[in-house]
Amino acid sequence: MDMENALQALKALSQRTRMTIFRLLVAHEPTGLPVGVLAEQLRQPQNTISTHLAILARAGLVAAQRQGRLRFYRACLPKLQALTGFMLEECCTQHPGQCSASATLATHPCAPPPSTC
Prior knowledge:
The protein contains six helices and three strands; from the N terminus they run ααβααββαα. The protein is mainly α.
């Protein structure tokens, strides 16, 4: 991951609703959630949720997959791992010992990578 990709991902996550959506999608891996369920859980209109999902998708943090009439959104865990690894690499170069435990977490696969990311 490079600086521009990291900045785009961090910018996408810097808004409360988008962070909440991303956290919900991570919690519902590997199946993901449709827009309607996200809208119900967040008590917001579907078009608002869709706008937030589009921003997260442009940052590479979520991906959609059509299942029948519904579009299910999933968190792109490899992108999250890349972002975490980038942050650790960029921020811990001066004090690598302080970040060693975090670095292990950043490279540990928390779920199989989705094929749609």
